[in-house]
Amino acid sequence: MSAIPVDRxxxxxxxxxxxxxxxxxxxxxxxxxxxxxxxxxMRALIGRAYPRVRGMVREPSWLFFEILLPFxxxxxxxxxxxxxxAPEAYIGFVVxxxxxxxxxxxxxxxxxGQLYWEKSQGNLELYFAAPMNLMAILLGMxxxxxxxxxxxxxxxxxxxxxxxxxxxxxDQWLLVVVVFVLTLSxxxxxxxxxxxxxxxxxxxxxxxxxxxxxxVYFVSGLNFPVGRLGALGALxxxxxxxxxxxxxxxxxxxxxxxxxxxxxxxxxxxxxxxxMTIVFTLLARWTIHRIxxxxxxxxxxxIRWQ
Amino acid sequence: MSVDTGSALPPxxxxxxxxxxxxxxxxxxxxxxxxxxxxxxxxxxGLLGPNGAGKTTLIKILTTLLLPTSGEAxxxxxxxxxxxxxxxxxxxxxxxxxxxxxxxxxxxEQLWMFTQFYxxxxxxxxxxxxxxxxxxxxxxxxxxxxxxxxxxxxxxxNMARGLLNDPWILxxxxxxxxxxxxxxxxxxxxxxxxxxxxxxxxxxxxxxxxAEADELCERIAIVDHGxxxxxxxxxxxxxxxxxxxxxxxxxxxxxxxxxxLARLPGVVSASLAADSDPEQQRxxxxxxxxxDAALGAVVSALGGLGSQILALRKSEPxxxxxxxxxxxxxxxxxxxxxxxxxxxx
Lengths: 306, 345
Description:
The complex is a heterodimer.
Chain A: H1 13-18, H2 26-29, H3 34-58, H4 62-83, H5 89-121, H6 123-129, H7 134-164, H8 173-201, H9 204-220, H10 231-239, H11 241-253, H12 266-298
Helix pairs in contact in A: 3-7, 4-5, 4-7, 5-7, 5-8, 5-9, 5-11, 7-8, 8-11, 8-12, 9-11, 10-11, 11-12
Chain B: E1 13-22, E2 29-39, E3 44-48, H1 55-62, E4 70-75, E5 78-79, H2 84-90, E6 91-95, H3 107-117, H4 122-135, H5 151-163, E7 169-173, H6 181-197, E8 202-207, H7 210-216, E9 219-224, E10 227-232, H8 234-241, E11 245-251, H9 259-262, E12 267-272, E13 283-289, H10 295-304, E14 309-314, H11 319-327, E15 339-340
Parallel strand pairs in B: 3-8, 3-9, 6-7, 7-8
Antiparallel strand pairs in B: 1-2, 1-4, 2-15, 4-5, 9-10, 11-13, 11-14, 12-13
């Protein structure tokens, strides 16, 4: 939004300070209707997403790191498959995996560590002291990250598709959209839960980040159909939103490919994703409120120096 | 003076038997050891004490960031433990040296983000931000990135953030920490102007700057080792240590020296000040009188001795004198470690 011009000569400090939106007395001002509470949470969500989106526009260097580097990683696997004379369908699998990995990386690197970082910056206690529900902050973080990751994913997908000539075959467009939305919901639900847990565990949790990247990529079948992993792949589909979302998307956008076998149907995987979304979001809600109680009880979480 | 906003309104802050123990190793530490306190609506109240006295712990409890170990604390009648949501709608807080927010945003954007946390409608938020930026004197920095602000500018921005939701109670935790004289004065003027604009606004200030507490606060509590040692107006506190009237007198000459004044009725003692210079016709005497009225006898006696009074100044005790009297050490002296559990007085 552009700056609203202020005539400095007309700024009357006492008039500005006399502004009072808080009712005629503090007791009245403290009583909000349900509608006010809901509006506050919605605005807090937008407010927290704002710096992510703003920062993305303001620091274009992310274009290099977030698009070019993942494209190179994807390209490496494309060249390996071509050198091995693997079926051309595998190029498509790699490209889709590379695009969707943007969301997983965002969840693990940005979402999970965010509250811990907010604590070290001194923001967390301001969040705790503000009237909104902390879930609004988590959702705002998720949406801000999602906007950024969507651009990266789209860029990797488009560039790789054009460069490597990937062809898609979609029979159920609606289901593609549903699965994509559910995949993101489940992923960011997990991210919100991890954010609280990382805050609780502190620096130790960042070692967990490393564990969550390469092994998860492998068991999720980032560059190959996860069904090839047998029981391990089935376990991944039952527990990791990235694994199940990626497999469902592959089944839907490369319809009829004989190489995708050994996994549930996309419809069933959509239900698994729905279940994961509900479970992770509820767990995130429970965890953040538990964290707040612990923070207030121990005095060790929200306060920077403790 | 504070403004009475109605007898039905409960105290802005009401604290009874408040204890806070940190479960630290090797042994728990008592940060608050039974605090009782009441602050009236509209009052500017100060918590004065050295580092580690328990000021920040108290403010964290009152701002709903910490739970008390035992005891009770209420803000305008709302319990900090069970009604934190209501308290958060009517309060705000600003701490010295605060680095909150996101460096990549401009001042204007950062403040707008915080308006959203307090539920201001988007356009209203931008308007309020623009008004407050001008009111705190940051018009030239409105489009500057937060990461490039000086310490003083950042604290002005933090103050603007603290006022975004028009709080009824504002908690200031060492708000001028690390600021130069001019910047600190700017912050103090800002707080006074904001508070004066609406009757009933209450400010709780923690500081270890004596002069700041003296200048701003209507009442002060002196805190040390998690206890309130004394509460009163600055004048009341000073009177605790000033049982006699102390004057510094300068005359052109004084026949008979200081003993000639010490013998007068109502004079407890009279001594020549170290910086007296009789050769330059300037004799300085430190006088301790039982009361101010005894000064009349001194002035008459000086007339009889043919001395001309060059200067007369009453010495006021400072809050530091009060603190030394209460705890037996100065503010700048090393504080003792916090009190372990079981070793409380």
